[in-house]
């Protein structure tokens, strides 16, 4: 190996060491900001029952990207599937949810934590027929560890109808983690 190659090798090793050290020292702003934990009561693996107590499906809510994003993966009893991403828009200070499901339903809502729970308001769009409705959701942590999810839609913003009401119960193996 020539002196020139040795210098190149030393430079490359030094550069890689500096990059590795920088990677190790990256900040975790979402983990260090309490606002990113406001929706943590929804984290976990859940069995979901409707308001009448019928089993509706399972849902997994996970925190990813060093706490910067919550992901949702829903599977209903009929095989209906949907997913959402949830995050804080730090420019506005609002929580945002973007949902899409296998039938072409699209929900975009935003809002924040209230005394009742996490309230998000926006729109529900049906790709199949092109209709868009006003939409709002409320996630409320209950004293027994469950979470109530209550969704409503409206054509005019004045009269609202229940779209879905579900009660989340943690899977037994997940219940001990909280």
Write structural notes for this entry.
There is one protein chain. The chain has 178 residues and is mainly beta. The chain has 2 helices and 10 strands. It has helices at residues 3-24, 172-175; strands at 44-50, 55-64, 69-76, 81-89, 94-101, 105-113, 118-126, 132-141, 147-154, 161-170. It has a 10-stranded antiparallel β-barrel with strand order 1-2-3-4-5-6-7-8-9-10. Strand 5 (94-101) and strand 6 (105-113) form a beta hairpin. It starts with a helix and ends with a helix.
> What's the gyration radius in Å?
22 Å
Content of β-strand: over 45%
How would a crystallographer describe the biggest sheet? 10 strands, antiparallel, barrel
Number of strands: 10
Q: What order do the strands of the largest sheet run in, or round the barrel if closed? A: 1-2-3-4-5-6-7-8-9-10
């Amino acid at each position: 190996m020539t002196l020139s190659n040795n210098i190149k090798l030393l430079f490359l090793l030094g550069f890689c060491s500096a990059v590795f050290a920088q990677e190790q020292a990256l900040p975790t702003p979402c983990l260090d900001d309490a606002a990113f934990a406001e929706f943590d009561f929804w984290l976990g693996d859940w069995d979901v029952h409707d308001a009448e107590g019928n089993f509706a499906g399972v849902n997994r809510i996970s925190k990813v990207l060093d706490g910067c994003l919550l992901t949702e993966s829903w599977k209903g009893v009929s095989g209906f599937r949907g997913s959402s991403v949830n995050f804080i828009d730090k420019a506005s200070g609002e929580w945002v949810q973007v949902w899409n499901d296998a039938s072409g339903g699209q929900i975009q809502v935003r809002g924040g934590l209230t005394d009742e729970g996490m309230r998000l308001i926006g729109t529900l769009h049906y790709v199949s027929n092109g209709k868009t409705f006003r939409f709002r959701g409320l996630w409320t942590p209950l004293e027994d560890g469950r979470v109530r999810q209550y969704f409503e839609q409206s054509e005019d913003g004045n009269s609202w109808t229940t779209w879905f009401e579900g009660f989340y119960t943690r899977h037994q193996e997940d219940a001990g983690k909280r």
